[in-house]
Write a structure and sequence with these properties.
The complex is a heterodimer. Chain A is mainly α. Chain A has 15 helices and two strands. Chain A is globular. In chain B, α11 (about 355-360) packs across α12 (about 375-390), α11 runs parallel beside α13 and α12 (about 375-390) crosses α13. The interface between A and B is medium-sized, with 27 and 43 residues.
Chain lengths: ~375, ~525
């Protein structure tokens, strides 16, 4: 008996939806098994990680808070991924976006006007775009792989952050901690919308999900991005410019990461400190693939990954699993989603006692 | 008598299936020693699958292969060669930077000292009256000469059966004649030849018997000398062949599409530079560009369509307006449509639906765009219109382009461009790898478009196609274009001489060879 993969004539719609769901379920199963094997209460850990954040009402706000940056960043990344432009440095663009927004706040002393918030948000977007412009320039001008340049710039961004909060922007009243002064109320967004548990970033995420849905499924621009990703020659023939697509997708994904960064700084931390880079930019890559690069899918995947963040903390305190739990679950999920991709394009056939001739044929044609 | 001797090759009830297709269904055929046997069929009829089984690349699901009277299980090409089966593929596998002899040495199963190999090489050349310089570097050779390397490589094994897969598709008429001489000589010395083709006049001229495949089955075995090209074509496609209706006494109108002193540098290492190309296509005229593959055809198409911008605006003129510096979209909106040679990934995106492929080029000309958004209803409607008008076999506008057969996808692509009612249309290899039925439909559509007053530029390697379709013909060789000639007044020999070959200039090739030998890599 052998197992053979046969190419499907068309990618399976069913598998496109089923594989992300199966990935989450398999992650839970595998996670339970692993924690059981290393001596924890596996099922309990899974329950606390995946279920508690959903059923406990007071955890909802946490989930939505974590989901917002993940969704906002992943929407931008998905667009680039559709064009096969792999921005894996969203974390850096997120950091620089927040720093640019903070810089505006610090440059305008006594910023009390209503314009402080839009100005900071605008600067955050531009900061992320500027950071992404470096790989875009390197790729279109010198064919430097954006995979390398975007990732490497994350570490540069971290150093910029360390320098600024430990040096020029250090809070004079901060007991020598490396952190910026807190934003004034006029420079901050409320943690949640008044009278609700909904964080403002999450509202932005909902609106942007709809905008990106329109952009990817209906617009000429979204079509051009998909075409560049699927067949560069056909894109050129159809009148779409490849380097313009490199620029635009990196600008959009960089801008989105920058936006997520400044929103996070303005509503959650109220300042920028060493704990600011929390890995959202990397986790958003998982969100993008788990959501199959589709805005609605990304929205749902963002919620799921946010659950693992919140649940990871719950499991840490309740089941005493290690700090790395959430990371392990997220990585396992990405592994399953990428591995199960083959089921979308291929059909699995189980063949019983194949005659030798067939075996030889399969070998020769493979 | 020959019939007393065992058959050289006999297939009995051979079948082979791939997922979703039965490529060969109970195929039987008999090849006598010294016979030139044609294997005839449209693309997708199962010819290639059949010969791949004979050459050991694929294994049959059912049936028997009997070689020289004894049943064989041929598990790989090396085993096939050991039996005395040689094969010359349509696409050559040669190292461009190496010499003829080095390439031959690399292709042999056994290691031979160079001196002995050279002696054998010369013996084969002499025996079959072939000309080939063993020290020449492959990149300096014409396609015909490259094919000769493959033939010599096969002949060095003293084959008893030689399989030739579409050998003439890249040759000039003169090269075809030389090849036929060689094959006839080879057959007279006792080697059987299995000759795969869909060019009927060649089969009439060359072959002793023919087996015709359709849809994976043998539909007829006949003597080509007693058949006409037409009767065999009808057996091949299983229907009556339609003549192209070309209105007589055509008059041409205004100049619609022109190129003047169009020069472009090589797009890449392996590309061809265009040198001072000039052409003029008038309204209602079909202008053909003949040439052997790789002489600048694709570069010419890109320059005309706008995928590559010309160096000055006047190099391409569309209906009196210089467009050389305008991009694809601008030219298209001015009425210039194009169909590049490669269907998958260039003229169409295989993983996209036909609807999406319709908006790839038709979104602006067919008015599908509204403030940057594509109207999916209009795109679907246009795709359905194309499917209907060009009888494209597809499940509907939602079908993926990659799920269509080559002929159907080509009909869709041609239809998509033609139904935009272009002022001028430029197509490269409009019927490459397309079955006879679809090819006839495409030819008719081109003729009809011209009859409505459009200018059509057809770039093709298929000389027969150009001669039946075009009013005017020119030849492209090494990126240079010959002056235009009237079809009907020019002979095939003249065109063949102009086609020359990839590197037809003997002085230049000698120089290159010298240089490469002086500085070995």
């Amino acid at each position: 008996m052998r197992i053979r993969f046969e190419k499907r004539l068309a990618p399976s719609r069913f598998m496109q939806v089923a594989t992300p769901i199966a990935s989450v379920l398999l992650t839970m199963l595998l996670g339970a098994a692993i924690f059981e094997l290393i001596g924890f209460d596996g099922p309990h850990a899974i329950y606390e990680t995946f279920i508690t954040p959903i059923v406990a009402p007071y955890k909802w706000q946490d989930v939505l808070t974590k989901a917002a940056p993940l969704i906002i960043i992943a929407l931008g990344l998905s667009l680039g991924n559709q064009a096969k432009i792999w921005n894996i440095g969203a974390e850096g663009q997120y950091i620089i976006g927040a720093l640019a927004g903070a810089g505006v706040a610090f440059a305008l002393p006594n910023a009390e006007g209503f314009w402080a918030i839009p100005l900071m948000i605008g600067a955050g977007i531009l900061g992320g775009m500027a950071w992404a412009a470096i790989p875009a320039f390197l790729k279109t001008r010198y064919s430097v792989s954006e995979v390398l340049s975007t990732l490497m710039l994350v570490y540069v961004a971290l150093q910029v952050l360390n320098y600024l909060i430990g040096g020029p922007w250090k809070d004079p009243n901060g007991h020598n901690f490396p952190q910026t002064p807190p934003f004034t109320p006029a420079e901050s967004l409320p943690n949640v919308l008044p009278g609700t548990v909904i964080p403002p970033g999450f509202v932005v995420a909902i609106v942007l999900t709809l905008v990106f849905w329109l952009l990817t499924t209906r617009s000429v621009y979204g079509f051009s991005v998909r075409t560049v990703g699927a067949a560069p020659n056909a894109a050129r023939y159809g009148g779409f410019d490849a380097s313009r697509t490199v620029w635009s997708t990196l600008m959009i994904s960089g801008g989105m990461a920058g936006l997520a960064g400044i929103l996070e700084a303005m509503s959650q931390l109220g300042q920028i400190n060493l704990g600011f880079p929390s890995g959202y930019g990397f986790t958003a890559i998982i969100v993008s693939f788990l959501g199959r690069l589709h805005p609605i899918g990304v929205f749902l995947a963002g919620l799921i990954l946010a659950v693992t963040y919140v649940g990871g903390q719950v499991a840490q305190t309740v089941v005493h699993v290690p700090n790395a739990t959430a990371g392990i679950f997220q990585a396992t999920m990405l592994f399953f989603i990428l591995a199960s991709d083959i089921l979308v394009r291929y059909r699995v056939r189980v063949i019983r006692d194949a005659p030798r001739a067939k075996a030889a044929a399969a070998g020769a044609s493979a | 008598m020959k019939s007393e001797a065992p058959l050289r090759l006999q297939l009995v009830g051979v079948s082979k299936s791939f997922p979703g297709v039965r490529a060969n269904d109970n195929v039987s055929l008999r090849v006598k020693p010294g016979e030139i046997h044609a294997l005839l069929g449209e693309n997708g009829a199962g010819k290639s699958t059949l010969v791949k089984m004979i050459y050991g690349i694929l294994a049959p699901d059912e049936g028997q292969i009997i070689f020289d009277g004894s049943p064989q299980r041929i598990s790989n090409p090396r085993a096939a060669r050991r039996l005395g089966i040689g094969m010359v593929f349509q696409h050559f596998s040669l190292f461009e930077a190496m010499t003829v002899l080095e390439n031959i040495a690399l292709g042999l199963d056994s290691r031979l000292p160079q001196r002995e190999l050279l002696a054998q090489f010369n013996r084969v050349l002499e025996a079959y009256h072939l000309k080939l310089d063993p020290r020449r570097v492959v990149s300096t050779l014409s396609v015909g000469e490259r094919q000769r390397i493959e033939i010599v490589r096969a002949l060095l094994l003293n084959p008893r059966l030689l399989i030739m897969d579409e050998p003439t598709s890249v040759l000039t008429p003169q090269e075809v004649e030389q090849l036929f001489e060689t094959l006839k000589h080879l057959a007279s010395s006792g080697c059987s030849i299995l000759y795969i083709s869909h060019k009927l006049h060649e089969i009439v001229a060359l072959c002793d018997t023919a087996t015709i495949l359709r849809g994976g089955r043998v539909v007829a075995a006949c003597d080509p000398k007693r058949e006409t090209s037409r009767s065999m074509a009808e057996m091949m496609i299983g229907a009556n062949l339609k003549e192209i209706a070309k209105p007589a006494g055509r008059v041409f109108g205004e100049p619609k599409l022109a190129a003047g002193s169009l020069s472009l540098p090589k797009p890449s290492e392996f590309g061809v530079a265009l040198k001072d190309v000039a052409l003029l296509v008038r309204a209602g005229e079909i202008f053909g560009v003949a040439g052997v593959a790789g002489n600048g055809q694709n570069e010419l198409l890109s320059a005309v369509s706008g995928e590559t911008l010309a160096l000055n605006p006047g190099a391409i003129v569309l209906a009196g307006r210089p467009v050389g510096r305008l991009g694809v979209n601008e030219r298209r909106n001015m009425g210039l449509c194009a169909v590049p040679e490669e269907r998958n990934g260039h003229a169409a995106v295989s993983e996209f639906s036909l609807t999406d492929n319709a908006s790839l080029t038709g979104r602006e000309t067919m008015d599908m765009v509204w403030y940057g958004l594509i109207d999916p209803g209009k795109a679907r409607e246009y795709a359905s219109d194309v499917i209907g008008a060009f009888t494209v076999k597809a499940t509907g506008p939602g079908a993926l382009a990659g799920s269509l057969s080559g002929g159907n996808l080509q009909k869709f692509i041609m239809g998509r461009e033609i139904m935009q009612r272009p002022e001028a249309l430029v197509v490269c290899q409009p019927t490459w790898g397309v079955d006879a039925g679809a090819a006839a439909a495409i030819h008719q559509a081109i003729v009809d478009l011209a009859a409505r007053g459009s200018a059509v530029l057809v770039i093709s390697q298929d000389l027969d196609e150009l001669l039946t379709l075009c009013d005017t013909i020119a030849v492209i060789n090494l990126g240079r274009m010959s002056p235009p000639m009237k079809v009907g007044e020019v002979s095939i020999e003249e065109i063949g001489l102009l086609m020359g070959g990839v590197h037809g200039d003997p002085a230049a090739t000698a120089e290159m060879t010298e240089a490469l030998h002086a500085h070995p890599i």
